[in-house]
Amino acid sequence: MPKTIITPPGSSIPIAPFVPGTLADGVVYVSGTLPFDEHNNVVHVGDAAAQTRHVLETIKLVIETAGGTLNDVTFNSIFITDWRNYAAVNAVYADFFPGEKPARFCIQCGLVKPDALVEIASVAHIAQ
User: What is the pLDDT of residues 59-117, one digit of tens each?
Assistant: First the structure.
């Protein structure tokens, strides 16, 4: 099965051995996305809602670069560092997925940079 690496214009160099996304057989797999700027610095420190918005905008760009939209997302994995941010994350998430929601899970855990409050990975099925 051939695969295509998806790297939107302006993407930062990953801090580990991965790519922003991979397209294979009409499925886009978006790597875990953190609230990083182009230099891998955490943006919106202390603001879970703004970090979630940044993460989802980045995911949207990866999926659009592959030829899809957020309506094509079928599954999200959400990682947060503190349950106190759950409501803020959900409020922004609902703005990005206003209709039928994708399947998902959410867990509390530590993230690779202490100032990052949220990380999301996505799967989208796009028409080919």
Answer: 999 999 999 999 999 999 999 999 999 999 999 999 999 999 999 999 999 999 999 99
**Does the model's pTM come out above 0.85?**
yes
Q: What are phi and psi of 29, to 5 degrees?
A: -105, 115
87-118: b or e for each residue (b if 16 or more CB lie within 10 Å)?
Answer: ebbeebbeebbeeeebeeebeeeebebeebbb
Pairing state between β 118-125 and 73-80: antiparallel
- Alpha-carbon span 114 to 49, nearest angstrom: 16
DSSP conformation class of 102: P
Reference 82, options 45, 111, 41, 104; nearest CA is 111
* pLDDT, tens digit, 9 for 90 and up, residues 7-17: 999 888 888 89
